[in-house]
Amino acid sequence: MAGTNFRATLVALLAVFIATTYGPDAFRAFKTLGVRRHLENTVIANAADFVKIEDTAQCEDVHFHETSGLLFTACEDTVVPRSKWFPPLANFADPGVVGNAQGSIHIIDPKTLKSKRLGIQGYDGPFVTHGIDIVADPKEPKDAIYIFAVNHVPNPEYVLAAKVGKASQNAESIPEKSHSRIELFHYVLGDSSVKHVRTISHPLIQTPNDIYAVSPSSIFVTNDHFYREGHMRALEDVLFRAKWSTTVHLQISDLTATDATAGVTGRVAVENLHNNNGLGHGRAADEILIASCVSGTMHIGKLPADPTTANITIVEDVTVDTIVDNPTYFSDPYAKPGDDRSGYLLPGLSHAINIGHNIFDHEAVDGTMVYFVQKDPKTGAWNERLIFADDGHRIRSVSASVLVAIDPAENGGKRQGWLFVTGFVSSNMIAVKVDL
After folding, report:
1. 193-200 and 114-121 as β-strands: parallel, antiparallel, unpaired?
2. What pTM was computed for the model?
3. Domain assignment of residue 20, yes or no
4. CATH code (residue 327)
5. Transmembrane ranges (predicted)?
6. What order do you get walking across the sheet with 218-223 strand by strand?
7. b/e code 48-67 from CB counts within 10 Å (16+ = b)
């Protein structure tokens, strides 16, 4: 009897330990993943304030180039392949589909709200797009940029093994089904195509998600998971103390190398963050934004003077009630003393709990939420506003958003901007006129 009571006590204590230790993580994950969340739709009274931008399929990331006033993004050519191959969501169903699909770089004019697809010179291989970043060409800072883009190409061994009747081994036994890497392009403003400069590969590039470019030779890259697939990957998402993913720094000494690994050195730049995901540029040149996706947190960090020897320092955290993908900072170009509308955009899926299933269905619906957060200059508190929400019928999914201000002098004095919203499984990017 005493033994039974002892066992019962142990079980009870274990239950209490699990509840108190992991309960807060589970509760927080339920909230950010959208379990039991009600769908919301931002009302757009004027039809002219909503524009669907054509030829912008599944553009996962987007950046505003202030010098030219243009947006740069990387998109897929069709919406079907991603439902069969997308390593960032552990979709390795059909690597063969990649051979017939190539993504592309696009520029979008915020004034005409039209997209222009750029040709690619010097590269005709698979291009499975994800995060990107742009940085000025130091030799032509006003006329040219470099574009870094994640590319999730499949492991050739896995492609071979996955072919029915031609498998040399069990496809599922291959631990690295993807050989994800980074492509570097050069673009002269006004040209109709980008030039492929080189491919960048390094052992620290494992599950790349996004890129933060300091210069053409210095970049940061997030690895969003330690585990590429399986139950441990799922646990890694929902257990916030599972801080196993990394942000790494890569130094590229040779921009002309044909060997993807040549001239590339790397080191881990920040650890102990959960679910490293999107990266963004902040208020100053040394501010970096790092998203802990399922945690619903944007970390504001400070870059080291020498990233080859020192790490990123996390200065402050901003948390919302959804997952956070690619954070961006909006700098108000029409700010006045006492009236500065600058702030951070934090986009995320309204029901991220469904995406693991929906990624395999190119006709599924995934809702979106975009928060705009600003720091109160008097109290230092963060004020958040849901600037846009959709149930997935106007745009499926969101992974990035950018805000471009409208000149009040051309807008009847009103402080407004065009909010560009795009998603990794969306058919089109959209632009919505919003109040600042």
Report:
1. parallel
2. 0.94
3. no
4. 2.120.10.30
5. none
6. 208-215, 218-223, 246-252, 264-270
7. eeebebebbbbbbbbbbbee
Residue 409 lies in a domain: yes
Domain that residue 147 falls in? 41-435
pLDDT digits 0-9 by tens, 40-91: 899 999 999 999 999 999 999 999 999 999 999 999 988 888 999 999 999 9
CA distance 282 to 284: 6
Query: In whole angstroms, what is the distance from residue 160 CA to residue 154 CA?
Result: 10
In a domain, 171, yes or no: yes
The 3-state DSSP composition of the chain as helix, strand, coil percent (nearest 5) reads 15, 40, 45
Classified as helix, coil or strand, 332 is coil
| Three-state DSSP class for residue 48 | helix
Low pLDDT (below 70) residues in the chain: 1-22, 164-171
Three-state DSSP at 70 gives strand
Q: How many domains does the chain have?
A: 1
Question: How confident is the model over 372-405, as pLDDT tens digits?
Answer: 999 998 899 999 999 999 999 999 999 999 999 9
List helix spans (H) across 276-433: 355-358
The answer to whether position 408 is within a domain reads yes
